[in-house]
Every structure is written in C-alpha cells, then in structure tokens.
Amino acid sequence: MDRLGRRPLLLLGSVVMTISHIIIAVLVWLYFDSWNGHKDKGWVAVAFLFLYMLAFGMTWGPVPWAMPSEIFPSFLRAKGVALSTCNNWLNNFVIGLITPPLIQNTRGFGAYAFFAVFCALSRVWTWFCVPETKGRSLEDMDRVFGDRAAAADKARRKEILKELLKQRDGQIEQEEVKTA
C-alpha cells in the first residue's frame, strides 16, 4: 500500500473485480443448466472467483481501513474512523443480506452482473472523488478537502514556538547579564 499508493490500488482493484464479475456472470448465464457438460467452464469461473478474492484482498479490503486515519484531522480522526468502520460493516451486512436472493432469483448470473456494475462505479467514484494520501500530511489533506483548520493550527503552533524561543532568548540574555 505504501509503495503503490492507495488510489492506484483502488483503481486497479476496481478493474480486476469488474472483469472477474463480468466473466463469471457470462459463464453462469451461458452454462447454468449444463455445468456437468462444461466442467472446464466451471473451473474458469472458479479461477475468476479466486482472482476477484485476491484483487479485493489486496485493494478494496485493506485500503478503506487505512485511508480514514490519513484523511481526517486529528480532532475528528476517532469519530471519522468510527464512522468509516460503521459504514464498512453496514455495507457488508447489506451485501450479505441481498446476495442470496440475488443468486436465487437471477439464476446466479444477475448477482455477478449487479456487483460488476458496482465495481465499475467504484472505479468512477475513486477516479473523481478519492485523493491520494500516500506521502501527504494532514495539512495537505485539509487543503485537498478545503478545510483550513489544520493549517491554522500549524500556523498557531509556529507562533507559539516563536514566542517560546523569544522568551528563552530573553532569559538567556538576563542570565548572561547576571553572571557578568
């Protein structure tokens, strides 16, 4: 994740997962009633299911757990990460809830087509809405999202440091006068 960046991983994962879902959907649609006569096609579907799982496990699985802590400013980080985690689990629950009826009511291929559409939409959303966080500070992320709070905090810390250094320098000068 740190070598490639988060955004490129999400974009690549979306493409691989979309292609995997499309291929599985087509194979299930074509051979749903005749898997016994086309076992090789079944193994191709299994291979693409494993490819999907690999792509998800390397991209969309871990990245959403890491990115929220890199985006939210310090004073909002705990709440932002909690909200992100809640959203992740809610989405997982909904997927678990709708997948069995999708498979039963669409002879299987409809579920894969449905998820292929969402994987394709995830690429569009990532392209337009997700910034790269690799190597960026929280202040940089604030600028990306138009928030000036962290930049103002950083400026205030600089002012405080200057004031402390002035006071220290003044104390050093006073001590030099006393010892002379």
Describe this structure in words.
The chain is mostly helical and 180 residues long. The protein folds into 2 domains: 129 residues, MFS general substrate transporter like domains (Growth Hormone, Chain: A, Up-down Bundle), CATH 1.20.1250.20; 33 residues. Helix content is 81%, strand content 0%. The chain is built from 7 helices and no strands. The chain is rod-shaped.
Brief overview:
Residues 1-134 form the Major facilitator superfamily (MFS) profile domain. The chain is an all-alpha fold and 180 residues long. It is 81% helix and 0% strand.
Number of domains: 2
CATH fold type of the largest domain? Growth Hormone, Chain: A
Which CATH architecture of the largest domain is right?
Up-down Bundle
Beta-strand share of residues: under 5%
How far apart, in Å, are the first and last alpha carbons? 59 Å
Report the uncertain regions: none
